[in-house]
TrEMBL record:
Antitoxin component of a type II toxin-antitoxin (TA) system. This is Antitoxin. Belongs to the phD/YefM antitoxin family. It comes from the Bacteria. It comes from Bifidobacterium vespertilionis. It holds the Pfam family PhdYeFM_antitox.
Length: 86
């Protein structure tokens, strides 16, 4: 869920907003009088996850492999294997 907050309110309660972004996995739209200056704030873990998702989508071979695997699972085309012992 994205919440909006004015820049001045964000600045005055920075720690609270940062905690909310991290603990609630919320994105926060920080607005300014000039919409071109608006920014989005999100937790670092959520940002890394988003970037990894983009890397997967940009790598067509990896993306296709994931889709094939998802189709196999949906079609019950998977097998259970025992883990190898070290």
């Amino acid at each position: 869920m994205t919440q909006s907050v004015a820049y001045s309110a964000f600045r005055n309660n920075l720690k609270t907003w940062m905690r909310k972004a991290n603990e609630d996995a919320d994105t926060i739209l920080v607005t300014n009088s000039d919409p071109a200056d608006n920014v989005v704030v999100m937790g670092a873990a959520d940002y890394e996850s988003l970037m990894e998702t983009l890397r997967i989508y940009e790598n067509q071979q990896l993306h296709d492999k994931i889709l094939r695997g998802m189709r196999q699972v949906a079609e019950d085309g998977t097998q259970v294997h025992q883990l190898a012992e070290e």
